[in-house]
Amino acid sequence: MVKTHNPPGSAEGRHDDTAGRVYGVARGSARGSSAVPPASAARRRRKPRATAGSGRLAALLVSPTLLVLTIVVLYPTIVALKDSLFGTPGLNPKTGFVNETDPFVGAQNYTDIFGAAGERFWNAFWNTSFLTVTTVGMETVIGVAMALIMNRAFQGRALVRASILVPWAIPTAVTGLLWRWIFNSNGIANALIGQQVLWTTEGFHAKVAVIIADVWKTAPFIGLLVLAGLQVINKEVYEAAKIDGAGAVRQFWSITLPLVKPALMVAVLFRTLDALRMFDLPYILIGAQKESVETLSMLAQDQAANVRFGPAAAYAVILFLYVFLIALAFVRLLGANVVGDDDAAPKRRRRWLPVRRPAEVAA
Amino acid sequence: MKTRTTRALQSSGAAAVALAALAACGAGGGTEAPAGQSASFEGRGPITYAAGKDPSGVVQPTIDRWNKLHPKEKVTFIQLPTDPDAQRQQMIQNAQTKSDAYTVLSLDAVWTSEFAAHRWIDRLPADGFPLQKMLKPIVETGKYRGGLYALPWTSDGGMLYYRTDLLKKAGIDKPPATWVQMKSDCAKVKKLPEAKGMSCYAGQFQKYEGLTVNFAEAVNSAGGVVTDAKGKPHVDSPQAKKGLDFLVGSLKDGTIPKDAVTYQEEDGRRAFQAGKLIFERNWPYMYPLASKKDGSSKIVGKFSAAPLPGLSGPGASSLGGHNVALSASAKNKATAIDFMKFFTSAENQRLTLASAPAAPTYEALYKDPKLVEQYPYLPILKQSILHAVPRPRVFEYGDVTAAIQRETYAAMTGSKSTDQALKDLQKDLQRQPAAD
């Protein structure tokens, strides 16, 4: 499971660490991308023309990137925001034609979710959250277990590694079709449990089906990232722990988990953001418009498909904000290091390690 | 220094936004079209035909024949995805950007109202086409508020497939015409040793478009209507209740197997072909497949088809099929009209039918001895289509079908009573704007 609370006592140290690191990121990126000369030189203005020129050059050099980002990220986001303020054109009862222009409704698409029509939205919202928490939680546990197995030296390790990754390599749509066969009323799942559960009908079992298929598909992703984290842990640490008399369980909680945490956090963050946008698996496995598994993405798609772009855009914006807040919370509270601050981080991490370790153990 | 860099970055960003905004203006500005009176169709030249993927491979040869005859007005076949929702979405995108990429559109019969109401397709001159030679219910699917907007190309009607061998053995000489007869026939057949473990009846009851089709058929077969000619809903009528009660009651008493609520067309076909069902409601496409002698079907030569049963006499089928329409933003509309005439002609349908099963739209083709020999179900299908009722013709069809699926499914899975489901459905459907 994702740790969602800080134990008392560790909060302060961690807060400092995060703040320092965020600062480090900012500094790092400023230095890395725009190549600003030392600030003191600019202040003294010894060579004002040269610095202005290099600033311009920097702007010129990053402008293609900014232009691409503007076109593919900023522009659609702004248009989505604008669209979310417009309603659906009505039908002119006399001519039988739909009006040509979308009426401006302000924030009504957003306020509607608090009204009677919001029932479907909140259902989708809770489904999204529920599926995210359960799938990511199970994937983390199973993924870490997979990584521990893959990290062991044994015969046929390469084969096990490759086979664990197979589900991850299959496109989600194909996974959906595959599991639909498994969860068919006469499918393997029912043969195994010896009961006829109608998995693809409405009900909690539909959620279970989606969770099983999703965990099957994406636990290897976490496994792979955690494996990369495990492989950089120095074997000497374990040897030292062994000499000190630490058992396997103690080693896992006190050494493996804290040291693999940066990699694990990134994996969990990526999975969480992915799971919040879940669409194709429930759509194909269970079907469209099934209340039990309808996620926010499915709801937005359904609205757009029915030519109601205003509400669709509003739902998409809300989902965007939701995902954004969760990502922010991850970076701030749990210290997921996504950006990867270059030179400053390892030094600081090493310095903090002795202090942080007890906190991690407590957590 | 730093501020200057930032400012430079900001200005380059701002320039890009301005550019993008400009592009948006270019795409968004539209002109108010005249209120859909059938406009003059002008312009000749190359056009396109946009339709879903054609697995039977009959469309391209047809277009090739046209291209040979009209080398200066060539038609290009644009294949859209197999999934109907994806087809519809691409056509809507094409219409919203006022693109001329698609000229002639192949529309599912239930999309006609939506496309017509949004003025994405042009009203067609009704006197320019041989509509009177077509079956009347089929022509209705191409109409919106009395105007012709789409030209029928293929149709589709539901039929009751039944096991001739078992019925004969149980001493029943003809297929059931009513639901009560069907249930009593089932009871007789089930006493036979061969019918051990068989279920009586199934249709398409998964929560998807097929459920709307089956619900509408049940309501129509009980003498009710889902929506009337003006788009007003009437699902709170006693007839509608009798229709839904038939489905829900049959599930409860075991006439319909429990897992049928997960059935789409192919699930039902598999069950029928494996000899698990005595009766099944399905489309004509199943007939040649269930007659295949490659071992996939256990019932070759042991089944036949009949019109759907109803409450107190033959039932009414829903109508499927595809119609061709003319995109409002297209060019070379004179060519398009000629091509549509050619494409939907009786000769063309005869050739199409010879190589792939379909339901033709011309009455004469149902009597064609050669075709009837190839597809013995044609006379029955004609009966089915003559009694057929189009699915609700409302411009927000997506919402209507979603509401029908939601409430019907709730009733069939037992989470709502049929009374409550129909009451809720009526309320949902009344939100739809109806005609005056």
TrEMBL record, chain A:
Record field: transmembrane? 53-75, 130-150, 162-182, 208-230, 251-273, 312-340
The UniProt keyword set, sorted, is: Cell membrane, Membrane, Transmembrane, Transmembrane helix, Transport
Q: Where is the ABC transmembrane type-1 domain?
A: 125-330
Q: Which Gene3D superfamilies match?
A: MetI-like
Q: Name one Pfam family in it.
A: BPD_transp_1
**What topology does the record note for this protein and the membrane?**
Multi-pass membrane protein
Stretches for region Disordered: 27-50
From start to end residue, where is composition biased (Low complexity)?
28-41
Source domain of life is Bacteria
Where in or outside the cell is it found? Cell membrane
The record's listing under InterPro entries reads: MetI-like, MetI-like_sf
- Its predominant location is membrane
- Family per record: Belongs to the binding-protein-dependent transport system permease family.
Q: What is this protein called?
A: Carbohydrate ABC transporter permease
TrEMBL record, chain B:
The stretch of residues making up the signal peptide is 1-23
Q: Which domain of life is it from?
A: Bacteria
Where does this protein have compositionally biased stretches of type Basic and acidic residues? 421-430
InterPro entries in the record, alphabetically? Bact_solute-bd_prot1, SBP
Which intervals of the chain are annotated as region Disordered?
A: 415-436
Tell me which UniProt keywords the record has, alphabetically. Signal, Transport
Instruction: Name the SUPFAM superfamilies for this protein.
Output: Periplasmic binding protein-like II
Belongs to which family? Belongs to the bacterial solute-binding protein 1 family.
What name goes with this protein? Answer: ABC transporter substrate-binding protein
Organism name: Streptomyces ochraceiscleroticus
